[in-house]
Amino acid sequence: MTLKFMTNELGKLYDDIVSYAKSQGMHIFHGVPLIGEEPRNVMLWSESDENWKQFLEVALSEGIKTLILDKEYGQGKHINDVGSITMAWSKDGITYLFSHDEEWFEENQRKDFSL
């Protein structure tokens, strides 16, 4: 297993999320939540609320034991930096998502889609 040196704050946040989730007895499933073009049973955590710990506390209060967690790295000058974190958990057919992107990552995504 190769560990990348994370130079940005989102990399540290990812480590904090893993540490907190494990300390609360949650299991981490490193994967990508796949959402179709027309998601019907998906609830998105408010983008204005970056409180990731509260997102996990809601999951814990709902009895969730497994957290789906993904991180994406940047490209070019940000190749070793985590640019995006996505967390998800499901209950009763509904998937709950928390996502946080670095500003530079969002800008790169917009550029890639406009090509």
Write down the secondary-structure element order: HEEHEEEH
Shape: globular
N- and C-termini, Cα separation: 34 Å
Structural class: alpha/beta
Q: Which runs of at least 5 residues are low in confidence (pLDDT < 50)?
A: 1-6
* Average pLDDT metric: 84
Q: Roughly what fraction of the amino acids lie in strands?
A: 25-35%
Rg (C-alpha, Å): 15 Å
Q: Could you describe the largest sheet, including whether it forms a barrel? A: 5 strands, mixed
Number of beta strands:
5
Oligomeric status: single chain
Q: What is the helix tally?
A: 3
Question: What does the model show?
Answer:
The protein is an alpha/beta fold and 115 residues long. It has one domain. Helices cover 32% and strands 29% of the residues. The protein contains three helices and five strands; from the N terminus they run αββαβββα. A five-stranded mixed sheet has the order 1-3-4-5-2. The radius of gyration is 15 Å and the shape is globular. Residues 1-6 have low confidence and may be disordered.
What's this entry about, in short?
The longest helix is centred in the N-terminal third of the chain and has 15 residues, at 9-23. Helix content is 32%, strand content 29%. It is globular, with a radius of gyration of 15 Å.
Fold topology:
Blueprint: H1 9-23, E1 27-30, E2 42-44, H2 52-61, E3 66-73, E4 82-91, E5 94-101, H3 103-114
Parallel strand pairs: 1-3, 2-5
Antiparallel strand pairs: 3-4, 4-5
Task: State the main characteristics.
single chain; 115 residues; alpha/beta; five-stranded mixed sheet; 3 helices; disordered N terminus
